[in-house]
Structure of ATP-dependent RNA helicase DeaD:
Amino acid sequence: MSESMSFSQLALPEPILRAVTELGYEHPSPIQEAAIPKLLAGEDLLGQAQTGTGKTAAFALPLLARLDPKQSEPQILVLAPTRELAIQVAEAFQAYARYMPEFHVLPLYGGQNYSTQLRSLKRGSQVIVGTPGRILDHLDRGTLVLDKLRAIVLDEADEMLRMGFIDDVQTIMDATPEGRQVAMFSATMPPQIRAIAQKHLGGAQEVKIESKTSTVERIQQRYVMLDGNQKLDALTRVLEGEEYDAAIIFVRTKSATEEISEKLGARGYAVACLNGDMNQAHREQTIRRLKADQLDVIVATDVAARGLDVERISLVVNYDIPYDSEAYVHRIGRTGRAGREGKAILFVSPRERRLLRTIEHATRQPIEKMSLPSGQVIEQRRIESFRATLAQTIEAQNLSFFQDLINEWRDSMETTDADLAAALLYLAQKDQPLNVASQFPEIREPHSRDRDTGDRPRRERFERGDRPERSGDRAERGPRPPRREMKGDYTTYRIEVGKEHGVRAGDIVGAIANEANIDSQFIGNIKLFDHFSTVELPASMPNEIFQHLKKVYVRKQKLNISVDTGAPASASGERRPAGPGPRPGAAPRPPRKPRD
């Protein structure tokens, strides 16, 4: 890579250059420098590069530059091996195209209900990013039409081969129009990938980028697995429980810098934000305050923190995980500079596991999993900090006036030195209480149906509709095997989809698990009838999830979930177990204990 080359030298349109600059990109990576001019010229490309080298921007930026904004039909199709990568690539396209009017990108993958995807397809999207199984499913249904396709990208082709999708990829490639541009990226080039390249890429030149070791020495790197709604609590715990002088918190958007700095300020932190909307004078003033110990925490975007070198910064928190490893290295490089020690903590949601693996692979360093500081740890740190301040005050201040007051008050109030000191301590710590252990309940790692269990090819087949029956379908599978232990009480619900709609127990489990974010192990017995079904769900299910499930579709049929009343079923003669219960839509009846 030429260090002097900038993105402005790559002939990209101004709206894309503006977005790239705001995202903090300075110089193109080797794969970007090699691939962008070729793809801009309309050439086919066979790229061999490791994950984390910046290849998403290498194909997204030039293909966006060739997009026709007046055409709403799909013009670019990106195939990705997993839904996590599909989401990541779609988000990158959206970020690069933020200043392109009327731009729409649509990720298509299993786990989403079809009605949402069909509405988005009807609205029109210029870029489609999807897993092979779901893309092929929409092609078979006729809901995805590729007549106007200009380019197709195979991202991580060797991974798709390993996962058993290569036949699907071939079928999709054959369904694309002649003359479309093709870009294929793969870390390795096994014979099957070479065969696809020879068939579909013709005489395309191969670009091969050797990966370089990227090391960040003297920085302790750790990550926390949590849901997005747990981040602020987790950040507070980190800032309370970690030893640091000053910290910088990285987020993706300008609005997030303002929102988080405001919330931290309300919690008593000396905090300010850095973002692209700040003028140079304001930025310099904020950095001066940080260097002068007037600020302890900065919340910043990548571009705003460019070139920031403040010796006090000993902790970096990646509140939002970066999309590529180069941004990650740039972020954590704000600490551990000039031989100093540093710490970096990364917040990761279950769907971002792949980004975590990408960063580890690209930096060739493991990132250690950590537990958040407990309430007891935070309480002890507050006590130690208060004690240190107290000792410093005793050492440095003339306290004779206050000693006289203490003696006078003790005598007039007829109290003891211990009681008087305790009362004063209570008043002094009211703004930041010392006794807080009970106020910090444990943050549990979220359940995820996307854990890296090695069964992704099997899950992708489920996405295409040939999902095997779950154990709850007694009509075909016989008695239900003992289910795993379920915690809490359960309520039986009725859903308005049954055998006549072609539904299977696995369809119901998949829809509820994805839409309600309920781990499948907490979905109880499912009974299928002709016109409806019943399902056991935790009685503690929040009302907003209950209302959301009413609108979910399974097999093109709205669930319309309601509390089961035990009423007669239909004219078919089927009856459900009779029993008292509330009318549909009423408050759930008192829950019963789950059966063993």
Notes: The radius of gyration is 29 Å. Residues 449-487, 568-596 have pLDDT under 50 and may be disordered.
